[in-house]
Each structure stands twice: as structure tokens, then as C-alpha cells.
Automatic annotation (TrEMBL):
<dbReference type="InterPro" id="IPR011043">
    <property type="entry name" value="Gal_Oxase/kelch_b-propeller"/>
</dbReference>
<protein>
    <recommendedName>
        <fullName>U-box domain-containing protein</fullName>
    </recommendedName>
</protein>
<dbReference type="GO" id="GO:0016567">
    <property type="term" value="P:protein ubiquitination"/>
</dbReference>
<dbReference type="GO" id="GO:0004842">
    <property type="term" value="F:ubiquitin-protein transferase activity"/>
</dbReference>
<dbReference type="InterPro" id="IPR013083">
    <property type="entry name" value="Znf_RING/FYVE/PHD"/>
</dbReference>
<feature type="coiled-coil region">
    <location>
        <begin position="343"/>
        <end position="370"/>
    </location>
</feature>
<feature type="domain" description="U-box">
    <location>
        <begin position="615"/>
        <end position="685"/>
    </location>
</feature>
<dbReference type="Pfam" id="PF04564">
    <property type="entry name" value="U-box"/>
</dbReference>
<dbReference type="InterPro" id="IPR003613">
    <property type="entry name" value="Ubox_domain"/>
</dbReference>
<keyword id="KW-0175">Coiled coil</keyword>
Length: 685
């Protein structure tokens, strides 16, 4: 249904330049105007001061033809600054450009440092550029969503929808919308959040020509679903502007909410502080620098806004009741009932005028004694209810004014009659003068009452405006409460997940500690065995069996069998060392040859540790292979290694990145140690 908004819009201060296809962002008391077609300049409009101030400009070589500017909510850390992202506006087969800005109010920071990156469009590199050269991003539209406000949902030509993660700058989803018997383009469309109680969720509504599409994104499964809405409109004019407010979508243009003059390529935005709709720029026949403004209260009406607030409050109460049943610790908000005063009867009108002037005088005296209630001391419901105290007082005053008018007519009639009997009533002239004086006093009192009525009317209008502002604030509070409570719920869920993970980690750590203690106990036993029996000749059958069990992980039965074989064959450690690997397998009745190899290598290590190291200096041995170095080199950590050993096995060192520079392993020849090793072996010949 078409709505006429012409009477609601008023002319605001004209734009400093003409804008079309512009993009605007609301920030506190400011509206940021971010460039447009053939216009790279950006301005800030202060809604309170009603002035424009220049911010910066896009580069001159950048084409802005239907670009898009969004607020990066996930980067917001301070209420006094704003992070913006600008992209699009270039057609197919044209290199794309993406810009970012950290905005700080130009109305507070008059002196901007030359080296500061604030309030300047910074061009992003190729990694952070949105769109490919083949993409047509003229008239692109985008919204911010996701549980962390880090997802960019953008729609552009050829029915494309793309979802980008703004944290790691990766495309998480890209698809085309396919509907039967539909041919249309996604450019210069109406793309808004599907809101519930004025809260954004991962649902969107798209109006494109004669079709409406509801889009829903499942962030957990990374899936996009859409369905066509019930048809009943035809947006042949695609160049309208729009806003989403209180779960309503307001469209401004020739086919929808009519504006004072025909206008296309304009931009509509709601300022968050004064709750006014601003129409910025656009193409019109007069080439005017258009800036219109409309009050939300006038468009919706006070009663409608109050109904919206009450519906939000009812939904909140229902959610709170559900949460309280589930054991939620958050307090319930009790909805207050408005107390209506009982009906008051109007006071009876004064008796009809009587011919006796003395009775009329008494009535005026009684009228003067009646007090007028103070408006400032009344409750608001007494002022606004149809049967309240203010309405009753107003009726009383109107009755009194009517009585005064009738009384004046009666007095004038009496005055005429007095003229007829002038000569007869000559003796009562003084009394007539008194009556005229009283009539003048009545007239003065009448004027005073009228002034009081005027004051009461002004107070009434002032109170009405204050109530309208309070209702808007109340709606904002309800919306903010919903947002904060949803965030609290999400944090509680994340806390439960983290606690469950911590519990699993504790179980794993406990298990690891038990395994480590068992291993440490076994290792201490072996070390004790090695320390007490460094000479292989002193090993008995239990020592040899323990050595075999340690290396081959024998069970108790296998260990006892091995000891029996050693006792039967009278095997000593010296025989094992001089025998070949195949002999090991035969002597100990091993199942596999690999077991014999493991035992042989382990025995050689023991020999190298307790025999060879007694005669060869330790500094001649490589820190990695524990063998004599043939080409000693010094690494960046100050340790000497054999060149061949560290070249092949340097990644086995825990901090091996510290041994490298620019990805290369740095080694310094140790000529002194090399000569020392050479002299040692020459002296032992």
C-alpha cells in the first residue's frame, strides 16, 4: 500500500555539493557523507549544530558508481571512534579498490596531526581487496552480520551472494540465487536485516524489481537458504532509498513513500540520537543539493510508538518467564500498570441568572473563591486521560467563562432597563456604578483565566514532547537490553563449553602424569642398573634380562622365559657384544630380526657412553650424534656440532629457528677444535 510522506519532510541545510549514489553512516550526532558518483569528497553533518565540515576525499582516479560503505563493528573499541570499510563502485573487467578509515569526530579534534592515519581513506593491498576484476560491483549492497559481527554479506550483479570473514579476509561462501521464471540483477536493490524486536539476526530481506526474497544464513553449517516472499509489489524504479526502523522497512521514491519532489539515487538514513530520517542527495530536475529531514514521531505517531514499546516489553517478559522456569539467575522485569483515576462528575452549573443583582454579586464572590489546580503538581495521567483532573479543571473553566458571558448579557440588559427608569432610580446611581466596576473586575478576571489556560496549553505541549522523547528512549533501552541479554546468554554457553574442555584436559593431564611416573620409575631402575653395573663383565642373568625387557617391552612371562634361556646357555654381556645380530636372534630365541637390531644398537650406545668416553675428550663429540666430529662448526646458539650431523638433523633441535637467518642455516667453521682433534689422534698413533 502506498503511503504519502510529503507533509512530513522539511528542508534541512543544503548539502555543500550535489551528491548522487552516495553512502552515509550515522555516528552519535553526526551523519558521515562518504562520496558519490563523480564526487570524491566526504563531509560530516552535525545534526545539532546543523553544519557541514569537510573530512577527506577519495583518490581522484577511483570511480565511485554505486559503491558501498559499512561499519566494522567487530573492530569497535571506543564509542568516540568509528572503523569504516568502503568498496565496490567499479564495473566488470576493472581493477577493484577497497579502502578503510578510522574516523574520529572532526567536530572535537580540530587539529589533525600530519602523521595520523585517522580520517583518511587508506587503500588496502590485494589480499584485503574485495572483489575480482571480472566482478561487476556497480550498485553493490552489503550488511554486517554473524555472531561476532565479523561476516560481510554482499550482493551484486548476476544474482551473486558472497560471505566474507573480515577477520582473516577469506571468502567463506559464494553462491547464486536461482528462482524459477525470474530474470533480474542484484544492483541498486533494497537489502536490509530481517529484525525481530529491532534486533539483527542472520536473516535478510532483499527487494529487487518485482520480487522479494528472504535470505537466511546458518553460521554453524555455513549454509545459505532463501525463499521468495509473497508477491504484490512492482518496483520498476530501482533507484529508491530505504531505511529499516522498528521492524518496518520504509521505501522512499516515486513508487512508494512519496517525497516532496521526484528524486532518484538518494540515500535514506536514521540518526540514532534525535530519531529523524534524513534523505541525502539524489538526482532531481532542478539539480538541487537535496537534504530533507522527517521526524519519526510524526510519521509513526505517539500511540504507535507506545504500542511498539509495549510489544517489545511483552516479548521481553515472555522470554524472561521462560528463562526463569529454566533456572535463569537474571531478574524479571515487572511490567507496570498505568493507574487510571476514577470518573469524576462535572460540577453543576451555576443557577440561571436572576434579575436580582445582589444574588449575581454573591455568585461572583463564590466563583472567585474557587481555586484553580496547579498543572505542575498533576500526574501525567491526570493531564492526558479523558476524565482526569486537568480535563475536569478545563471543563470548569469553560463553564465559568460561559457563565461570565451570560452574566454580562444579563447585566447589560439590566443596564438598559436602568436607563428606562433612570429618573426613577436616580437615587441608586451609586449602586449602578458599583455594578459597572464589578463588571470590569469580572472582565479582568476573565482575561486572567484565559492567560492561565494559555499557560496550561503551553505546558501541555511541552509535556507531550517530553513524553515522545521518553518513549523513544524507552524503545532504545528495550532494544539494548535484548542485545546485552543475548550476548550474556552466548557468553554463558561459551563458558560451559570451556569448562567441559578444561575437565577433559584435566583428565588427560592426570592420565599423562600417571604414565610419566611409571616411565620415570622404570627409567630410574634402568639408570640404577647401569650405574651399578657399568662394566659389562659384571652383568648377571637378571641384569641381562632387565636390559632386554627395557628395550623390547617384554611382559612378565616373556621376561622370565628370557632369564631361563640366559641361565641355561650361560650367556654373559661380553658374548652379546661380540656376536653378530643374527646370533642375537638365535641365542635369545627372538621372533624378529628387528628386535636383535634394537638390542645391538642399545648395547653399542652403552659402550660408547661408559667406555669410549673415558678416553676421548667430551668436547670432541658432536652434541647431536655423540660421535667424534670430522668437521666441527659453531651454530648461532654457540654450540659446536659436526657439519654433516647438524645439516641433516638440525630440525631435531627445539629452537632450530634461532639458528637461521632469512631461512638459511648459519654455520661457522671451528678451525681451532678441528686442529685439536687432529693433534689428539696423531699423538695416539
Amino acid at each position: 500500500m502506498q503511503s504519502i510522506f510529503t507533509n512530513y519532510f522539511e528542508n534541512e541545510i543544503e548539502l555543500p555539493q550535489q551528491y548522487e549514489q552516495t553512502q552515509c553512516i550515522s555516528f552519535n550526532d553526526e551523519i558521515l557523507i562518504c562520496g558519490g558518483f563523480n564526487n570524491q569528497k566526504c563531509y560530516s553533518y552535525h545534526t545539532t549544530k546543523r553544519q557541514y565540515k569537510y573530512i577527506c576525499s577519495y583518490p581522484e582516479n577511483i570511480e565511485l558508481k554505486g559503491h558501498c560503505v559499512v561499519q566494522l563493528v567487530h573492530l569497535q573499541t571506543s564509542p568516540n571512534e568509528l572503523h569504516l570499510l568502503s568498496f565496490g563502485g567499479q564495473g566488470a573487467n576493472i581493477n577493484k579498490a577497497t579502502f578503510s578509515m578510522e574516523y574520529k569526530s572532526v567536530w572535537e579534534n580540530n587539529e589533525v596531526k600530519s602523521d595520523s592515519n585517522s580520517n583518511t581513506w587508506i587503500k588496502q593491498d590485494n589480499v584485503h581487496t574485495i572483489g575480482e576484476p571480472k566482478d561487476d560491483l556497480e550498485g553493490v549492497r552489503a550488511l554486517i552480520g554473524g555472531s561476532k559481527n565479523n561476516l560481510l554479506f554482499m550482493i551484486y550483479s548476476r544474482k551473486n551472494i558472497k560471505v566474507i570473514d573480515l577477520i582473516n579476509w577469506k571468502t567463506v561462501l559464494k553462491c547464486k540465487v536461482q528462482l524459477k521464471d525470474r530474470t533480474y540483477l542484484f544492483c541498486y536493490t533494497c537489502f536490509v536485516h530481517f529484525t525481530i524486536n529491532n534486533i539483527n539476526i542472520n536473516r535478510f530481506i532483499l527487494f529487487c524489481q518485482d520480487v522479494g526474497i528472504e535470505i537466511q544464513y546458518d553460521e554453524e553449517c555455513n549454509k545459505l537458504s532463501y525463499k521468495e516472499l509473497q508477491s504484490g509489489w512492482n518496483f520498476n524504479k530501482i533507484f529508491f532509498s530505504y531505511v529499516c526502523l522498528y521492524d518496518h522497512i520504509l521505501l522512499f521514491g516515486e513508487m512508494n513513500a512519496q517525497l516532496p519532489i521526484a528524486l532518484s539515487f538518494s540515500f535514506a538514513i536514521v540518526n540514532g540520537h534525535d530519531k529523524k530520517i534524513h534523505i541525502i542527495g539524489g538526482v532531481n530536475n532542478d539539480n538541487k543539493q537535496i537534504h530533507w529531514v522527517a521526524d519519526v514521531v510524526k510519521i509513526y505517531g505517539t500511540s504507535s510508538l507506545l504500542g511498539i514499546a509495549q510489544s517489545y516489553e511483552v516479548d521481553i517478559l515472555q522470554n524472561e518467564l521462560v528463562r526463569s522456569k529454566n533456572g535463569s539467575p537474571y531478574p524479571l522485569i515487572v511490567k507496570r500498570r498505568r493507574i487510571q483515576s476514577p470518573n469524576e462528575r462535572f460540577i453543576k452549573r451555576f443557577e440561571k441568572e436572576k434579575k436580582d443583582i445582589e444574588i449575581l454579586e454573591d455568585k461572583y464572590k463564590r466563583s472567585n473563591d474557587q481555586s484553580i489546580p496547579d498543572v505542575n503538581t498533576m500526574h501525567w495521567y491526570e493531564l492526558w486521560s479523558c476524565n482526569g483532573q486537568f480535563k475536569a479543571s478545563e471543563a470548569k473553566l469553560l463553564d465559568r467563562l460561559q457563565d461570565i458571558s451570560q452574566d454580562m448579557t444579563t447585566v447589560l440588559l439590566q443596564r438598559t432597563n436602568l436607563k428606562v427608569y433612570f429618573y426613577i432610580l436616580l437615587l441608586f446611581v451609586n449602586e449602578s456604578e458599583i455594578i459597572l466596576k464589578e463588571l470590569n473586575e469580572i472582565k479582568i478576571r476573565k482575561n486572567s483565566i484565559q492567560e492561565q489556560i494559555n499557560v496550561a496549553f503551553v505546558s501541555k505541549e511541552k509535556l507531550k514532547k517530553e513524553i515522545d522523547v521518553s518513549i523513544l528512549k524507552y524503545i532504545d533501552c528495550m532494544t539494548e537490553y535484548n542485545n546485552l541479554y543475548n550476548i550474556q546468554t552466548d557468553l554463558s554457553n561459551e563458558e560451559e563449553l570451556i569448562q567441559e574442555r578444561m575437565r577433559l584436559l584435566d583428565e588427560i593431564c592426570t592420565y599423562d602424569e600417571n604414565v610419566f611416573h611409571e616411565f620415570e620409575k622404570l627409567n630410574n631402575t634402568l639408570n640404577s642398573l647401569l650405574e651399578n653395573h657399568r662394566k659389562l663383565e659384571t652383568w648377571v642373568s637378571e641384569d641381562i634380562a632387565s636390559f632386554v625387557r627395557y628395550n623390547l617391552n617384554f611382559t612378565t612371562t616373556e621376561l622370565q622365559s628370557c632369564k631361563n634361556i640366559i641361565d641355561e646357555k650361560k650367556i654373559c654381556a661380553g658374548q652379546l657384544f661380540v656376536n653378530e645380530i643374527d646370533n642375537w636372534k638365535n641365542i635369545l630365541n627372538l621372533n624378529e630380526r628387528t628386535q636383535a637390531i634394537i638390542l645391538s644398537n642399545s648395547l653399542k650406545k652403552i659402550f660408547a657412553k661408559y667406555y669410549r668416553n673415558k678416553y676421548i675428550p667430551k668436547e670432541f663429540l658432536c652434541a647431536l650424534s655423540n660421535l667424534i666430529m670430522s668437521d666441527p662448526v659453531i651454530a648461532l646458539n654457540g654450540t659446536t656440532y659436526d657439519r654433516l650431523s647438524i645439516t641433516n638433523n638440525f630440525r631435531d633441535i627445539t629452537c632450530y629457528p634461532s639458528l637461521m637467518e632469512d631461512g638459511k642455516l648459519i654455520l661457522i667453521p671451528n678451525h681451532f677444535l678441528k686442529n685439536k682433534i687432529k693433534e689428539f689422534f696423531e699423538s695416539t698413533k
